[in-house]
Amino acid sequence: MSTFDAINLRPGPITGCQICLSSHLEFILDLGHNALCDSPLTPEQVRGPETLYPLRLVRCMDCGLVQIDYSVDPALLFHPDYPYLSGITETLKRNLQATAERGQEKFPASRDALAVDIGSNDGTLLEGFKKLGFRVRGVEATNIARVANEKGIPTTQGFFNLNMAQRIVDTEGAAAFVTATNVFAHVNHLGTLLRGIHMLLTENGVFISESHYLLDILATLQYDSIYHEHLRFYSLKPLAKLFDSQGFSLVDAERIPNYGGSIRIYAQKGRGRPFSENVRNLLAEEEKAGLYASGAYQKFARDAQTSRQKLRSLLVRLRDEGKTVAGIGCPGRAATLLTWCGISPDLLPYIAEQSTCLKVGKFTPGTHIPIVDEKRLFDEQPEYALILSWHYARDIVRKMRAKGLRSKIIVPLPSVRVAEGEL
Ligand SMILES: [Zn+2]
User: Fold this and answer.
1) How far apart are CA 183 and CA 355, in angstroms?
2) Which three-class secondary structure state does DSSP give residue 201?
3) From ligand 1's centre to the CA of 293, what distance in Å?
4) What is the pLDDT of residue 421?
5) Distance (Å) from CA 17 to ligand 1 centroid
6) Predicted confidence band of residue 1 (pLDDT cuts 50, 70, 90)
7) Ligand 1 centre from 247 Cα, in Å?
8) What confidence tens digit (pLDDT) does each residue in 395-406 have?
9) Residues 217 and 44: beta-carbon distance below 8 Å
10) N or C terminus of the chain with fewer C-beta within 10 Å?
């Protein structure tokens, strides 16, 4: 069994499993060297050099954890100007706030209890707890902490560590709930994170986390969810092992639609508590889908190669035929897709984003495609538009049509298709 410090990663190549330290890591897919996907370049930066990092997917043959095998220094990944605001899409906002309601439904706490969110972004999730009468505390490393504080969600700016956990307990008491959405798969100091959460929680306190779910990633060929922030791609079997090794029990889990398919897990403080029926059913489903054997991953890698060829061929053909094409939306995952498929500005001259998006006026990392105000898309009405937030394609296209977009829509995944009208 690992102590909490043993599973903390140092920046650089990862040689042992991030959960069980095994060196039996099976290679799955090499996405080449990639720029950091949430570091769009300014017009000045795009004229200078850019650092690229290896991006490879591997699987632990012992505990089953699927993971990447290079850890980028978090100070570079989650820089102070990190451009992501969780409140930005309505769907995401609703899903995040549902976390609080579901937690309280399953593990009722007194209404003035404390809820802490780690990696709290603009405070969207904590607004859900606040509405239920909880005291709330956010922890956020980037400048987005200011946005949260301005809208009344008390947020500490900084990287979560044991000192911060102790300070919160000393000043605000122990927490009935600690949440960490996505950040749970992102942090390189996983041991410190879990140790700190253990310190924060009351004796029966519950840690709720949401992450991309490996079952969905394989089922819908989401190779574009692989990027340096995502160190681990969780499934329940290795998670149960992780929690047990760090003094928790995985007690419940449910699939949720966030980010094209996620898993919300509930881990209660204290070892040896039983799995819920949901957990038992999902574990059986994971085995059935082949998550703990090589075949499913060989197929994933083959399908990703085929998908890349198809998307690139389509864009090359459209360019050669003189058609106009633009991109819609620039989520972090777009960087992996654009890089892996070799999509440069000659194939995709610009990507349209909402005017409120902090990426507007910058260039995509690695591929250097200008990110512009979506007004240009509506003015120019290109013949084709490649939707990069394809996991929300239906909602986005409905809104874009309502605002007057006439372009044919190229949906890149799970399989390349071109659609007119609604999706
Ligand atoms: Zn392992």
Assistant:
1) 26
2) strand
3) 14
4) 84
5) 4
6) very low
7) 17
8) 899 999 999 999
9) no
10) N
CA 108 / ligand 1 centre spacing (Å): 33
The two three-digit tokens of residue 152, written as one number: 């009344």
Supply the angle between the helices 124-131 and 90-106 in degrees, to the nearest 10.
Answer: 40
Q: H or E segment at 241?
A: helix 236-245
| Three-class secondary structure of residue 36 per DSSP | coil
Helix (H, G, I), strand (E, B) or coil at 407: coil
pTM higher than 0.85: yes
User: How many angstroms does the Cα of residue 301 sit away from the middle of ligand 1?
Assistant: 21
pLDDT at 9: 95
What is the Å distance from ligand 1's center to 322 Cα? 50
94 Cα to the center of ligand 1, angstroms: 34
Query: pLDDT per residue over 311-343, tens digit each?
Result: 999 999 999 999 999 999 999 999 999 999 999
Residue 39 CA to ligand 1 center (angstroms) comes to: 30
Residues with CB under 5 A from ligand 1 (ion): 17, 19-20, 22, 60, 62-63, 65
Cα 141 to averaged position of ligand 1 atoms, centre (Å)? 28
pLDDT tier for residue 361 given thresholds of 50, 70 and 90: very high
Q: Which domains does the chain have, with CATH numbers?
A: 86-293 (3.40.50.150), 305-419 (3.40.50.720)
Residue 342's SS3 state is: coil
Are the C-beta atoms of 142 and 78 separated by less than 8 Å? yes
H-helix segments, 31-189 = 74-77, 90-106, 124-131, 144-150, 162-172, 183-186
Q: What distance in angstroms lies between residue 384's CA and the mean position of ligand 1's atoms?
A: 44
How far is ligand 1, taken at its centre, from the CA of residue 239, in Å?
10
What average pLDDT does the structure give for the chain? 94
CA distance 12 to 309: 30
Which residue matches tokens 């043959």?
61
Contact between 125 and 86 under an 8 Å Cβ cutoff? The reply is yes
How does residue 177 score in pLDDT terms, banded at 50, 70 and 90? very high
Q: Which amino acid is at 21?
A: L
